[in-house]
Each structure stands twice: as structure tokens, then as C-alpha cells.
Amino acid sequence: MKTLVNIITREHPVAAYLFIKEFFEEGDQLLFVSANDSFDCITPLVKILQVDPGVVQRIVLRRDSDSYTYERICRTINNGINKDTEYYVNLAGGSRYMALSVQHVFSNYHSTFYYIQTHQNLIVKTIFDNSIYDNDDEIIPIHYRMTLAEYFEAYGLSHDIDALQPPISDETQSRQMFNLFSKQQIRSSEYKILDVLREKYRGWKYLNIEEAEHPVKENMTPIPNLGKFLEYINFTPKEEGILNQQELDYLTGGWFEEYVYYLIKTVVQPDDIAVGVRIDGCTEIRHNNELDVSFIKNNQLHVIECKSGISSESMFNEIVYKVSALKEVLLGVDCNSYIFSLKKDPTGDLKKIATYMGITFCDYECLTREDKLRKVLKRM
User: Fold this and answer.
1) Residue 87 per-residue DSSP state
2) Which of 87-101, 285-299, 345-359 has the lowest mean pLDDT?
3) What is the rounded CA–CA span in Å between residue 74 and residue 59?
4) Which of 11, 249, 283, 363 is an S-S bond match for 254, by CB 3.0 to 4.6 Å?
């Protein structure tokens, strides 16, 4: 029997989760060390780990000064541990001061030290001794692979993954839609049809196509030739003569999300992927956000904001700030953020703005040139 020790922080719970998934065995104990402001992050981890609460111990630095005063950290931890226990100590997470304190205290007990390197999906097992030339560090690959649900729940986020509808289109149809728009095979009159659908009918539970072409109700804006447009883009509604809410969303931009979904699924081959996941921060300040395309590969979360059209630089800036805030407030340091768009960026100014905010921008040229697209997808 052993005790797995983890430093818990709001910014990086995944390191602790993966450490436990790799090493926890029946009969083991869990010990979490945290500052007071991260104490509530322990409960979501215990819940998704599905362990008996009786095997969980918490050492919490209740006063703010306790979390950055070395001697107080050491005393608090020392008072909460057992000399007769074998400890597996994960030094990832927390401040440098916290990690130094944890390492110092547990060095006086029967302890083995590890460091989770989440970006490389590795665990480093090390021995703290006076020799730095015997090459006794051991590199261990992380075999466990998280799902999207696990990642979100580790951060204390609620989600609707289990209730998601499957994509409307198949991969072939999504490619056809992409070709129509990227090769500018949509005429200005047809863009007007899409504008009316987006501005007047997006969010409707259903739209009768014939009524939309020849409306008799005052609250309806006419869309001449809507049926012919659907034939032109080779789109067949599930129910003849009717566009349901999901189909309206698809026609007014959802097609691009599904194109990116199939692109990632085929080329990157993620461990888990979804379109349109809604997440909620579950705090007093509600954060309810929809992730256009989210996927996880080798325990790394990737979130793509999909915008088929961006009309101005100010609109682009708003998207960048939204994506950046989503990562900072909810999704944590392990999240990789992207914006995919058919917007052209000949000067590279938009890419510079995104890069400055830690976001990868994949523009029209990137999406339509195989060599550039391959470079972006390879980094995923």
C-alpha cells in the first residue's frame, strides 16, 4: 500500500489526475496538498476518479501567507503525514515554493519523487541525492488517455457531451460545402439568402421552405429561391419542405464547424472529438460557452473557434479576446487554442494579433494550401 501525493492548483489539475490514473492501485491512499484558494478543486478530481472518499486526505494551507512562507508550508505538511507510509510524490503543480517545500518535507520519509510533464505526456522519476552524474532519472511514458469529459470535469466544468447531436453532414458533403465557399462558387444573391437565414431565422425550431419563399405572416422576411439554393448546394432536409433548428444552424455557419471536425478526425486522429460542446464554469459568475470544435489527443486539449467569415479587424479582435478569455478563465494552461476562418490575411496582421494572445490563426491561405495546413495539423 502506498500514498500518492499531489499538489493541487486551479490552473493545472490534469497533472494530478494523470499521475493518479497511472499509479493508483486498490488499497492505495491519496493525499492532496493545496493552498486555500484551490481547496475546492480537490472535490471534482475525487468525483471523476471514483475512489472511496475514505482513502482521500487533504492538507490545506488555510491562511494566504501559509502558501508562500517556506517554513509554514513545511510545518503544515509535516504535521499531516505518517512516518510509516510509502509516498509517491508528484512535484508538478503549485508554485515553485510549494514544490520545494513538498520535496524538502517528503525527503525525510520513505518517498519516491516524480514530475508530470503533460506537454510531452511523460513522467520523470528522479532521485534527489548528491550525485548528478549517474543518470538515474527515469523517463516513463503516460499510457492513460483522457476523454473530453474527463478533462472538463477535472477542471470542475459541467458539459453536455452526452446530449450532443451527431453532425448533420457526412465527410463528403462537408467537403463539398467547403469547396463551394472556398472556391467562391456562391453568388452574391445566394449570400443574401444566407444572410436572411442567419439574421432572421437562426434559432427558429423549424422553417417551412415554401412559407419562407412566399410569407404571409408579418414576422417573416421573404427568401425567394430558397428551395433552388438548397438544390444547388445539394442539401436535402431531413423532413421534406422543412428546415429544423439544427439544419438552420448548419446552413448559417455550422457546415464550417463540421468540415473542420471531419478534417481533424481524419488527419489528426484524436482520442476524442466533438462539435458544439457547451461548458459551464459552475461558479457564482456563470460562464456558459459553446466550443465549436474541441478534441483531445495525448491528453492535450485543443479548441478551435470556427468562423467561415470575418467582416472586419474589430470583429476578429473580439473573437481573439473571447478565445483567450475562455482559455484563461476556464480551460487552463494545457489548452491549445485556434481560430479557423476563410478570412484572407495577406499582410499577416491578423495572425500577429492571434499569436500575441497565444492563439494559432489558420486563415484562407492556410486552409486552402495543403502544405500550410499540414504544418498546422502536424503540430496538433
Assistant:
1) E
2) 285-299
3) 11
4) 249
| Residue 122 host element (H or E) | strand 122-126
Nearest to 3 by CA among 82, 104, 94: 82
d(CA 30, CA 2): 9
Is residue 226 within 8 A of residue 195, CB to CB? The reply is: no
Q: Look at residue 328 and tell me whether its pLDDT is greater than 90.
A: no
pLDDT in tens, 102-117: 999 999 999 999 999 9
Measuring CA to CA, which residue among 223, 225, 231 is closest to residue 180? 231
Can you read off the three cell numbers belonging to residue 238?
Answer: 431531413
Does residue 95 surpass a pLDDT of 90? no
How many Å separate Cα 114 from the centre of its chain?
A: 26
Cα separation of 354 and 360, whole Å?
A: 6
pTM of the model: 0.90
In whole angstroms, what is the distance from residue 49 CA to residue 102 CA?
A: 23
Of 274, 219, 226, residue with least CA distance to 251:
226
Residues 6 or more apart whose CB falls under 8 angstroms from that of 5 comprise 31, 32, 33, 87, 88, 89, 90, 102, 106, 111
- Helices 42-49 and 13-23, axial angle in degrees (round to 10): 30
- Cβ neighbours of residue 143 closer than 8 Å, sequence gap 6 or more: 22
Q: How many CA atoms lie within 13 A of 153 on its CB side?
A: 16
Say how far apart CA 359 and CA 189 lie, in whole Å: 34
- For residue 335, the one-letter residue type is C
The average pLDDT across 15-38 equals 93
Q: How many CB atoms lie within 10 A of CB 37?
A: 12
184 by DSSP, 3-state: which? coil
Contact status, residue 76 vs residue 105, Cβ threshold 8 Å: no
Sign of the CA dihedral 211, 217, 220, 225? positive
The CA distance from 73 to 271, in Å, is: 39
